[in-house]
Amino acid sequence: MKKNLFLLTFICTSTFVLAQDTTKIAGGKKNRLVWISAVSRDSLNNPGRNEISTNIIPFAGFLMGSYGNDLHVTLMYKRVSADYRKAWRFGVGMYESETYSWGNTFTQYYQVTDTSRIANQFMISGTPSFRANIGYEWRGKGRRRLQSWIGADLIAGGFVDRYNLADFKEIKDSTGEWGWDFSSGTNAYEPYGQNRSFFFQAGVSVNAGLRYALNRYFLINFQTGADVYAYMGTEYKRVTRTTMRSEKTTGVGIHAPALINEVSLVFRF
Q1: What is the number of domains present in the chain?
Q2: Cut 0.85: pTM above it
Q3: Quick check: 57 pLDDT over 90?
Q4: Which range marks the domain in which residue 119 is found?
Q5: CB under 8 Å to 3, separation ≥6 — which residues?
């Protein structure tokens, strides 16, 4: 799936940067497809020093139907120095959190017979992780069409976890499979509690990549990197069949989703 997703991203990018060029040959006209990047060098000499970019991988993932586990939506603004070698950057993003990507259900059984049982389920789910960043970027020499860079950011944000505790009445059908006892109506489900908890995250993001200028206004940026962060919040644990207990928790995490974790379309002005 990831291979197909990267291929679709490449195709979408290639389609975007194709343009129609008309040239005169022997008194007539001939149409040919050329890359937008095949512009005169003069058009790259004085690009704008403001840049806005967004990660295009999620949009390709949406078209492929794989937008759950690869969630990584970003919007970034950069202010470039006069020599085009450095840049301040400010951004916001939405990423998959641990509970958003997998969720979990812990089940214990009570009143078990050959044909019926009570499934006591403790369910944990969560929202994506939202965050903001501010940082600095160092770039390779000059205003070349292909340029390397490395950067670092301070990051801060968080996510919300949801906790549910409930009983589900189950019966065994003629094939031996267990399922919800719909014949019991409202008695098939007995909720005991719902809670929510906010987790705060703060840390450092280090990344590097390559930028390719399509023309004076548009670039494609390929990025790799990782985040190291600390988090704190309140989590809930099941104590008995009908009760939960809250506990303060802290920890350290590392987020490194993929070798190429972002392919961005950049507009500069």
Answers
A1: 1
A2: no
A3: no
A4: 2-268
A5: none
